[in-house]
Input
Amino acid sequence: MEQQLRNLMTSNVFTVNESQTIQEAAAMMSESNIGALPVINNNGQMVGIITDRDITLRSTAQGEAAQTPVSQVMTAQQVVQGTPDMDVRQAAELMSQQQIRRLPVVENGQIIGMVALGDLAVDNQFDGAAGQALSSISTPSAPQK
Output
């Protein structure tokens, strides 16, 4: 029987509201030693995700102010998500295909967990799937000119 994400996910997920500033998001990431925060609206529905890379490339590099709302730099369209009943191998394949290192686990529009590539690698049962996903995720891209 395959393992479900609900058995592997981190359920204590820090989130940020879409109206909070990127400075607040960055401070939360720093304090919690995490690289991504699911973004929620006032109803608690997940509307996007913001990563440390988003903050660097979409705000700092563009000269945006620290008071810029998260909603202006987050990834909002087609945020890749998993479900608690999703098979771990399916999740690893999805992460590999989409070249992502973190997968929000959503149920009824609410964020209930997060699975990182490292979570898959820690469990020896899924080490091969994690390695394959990492290989696909880490495929280098050429610098843009």
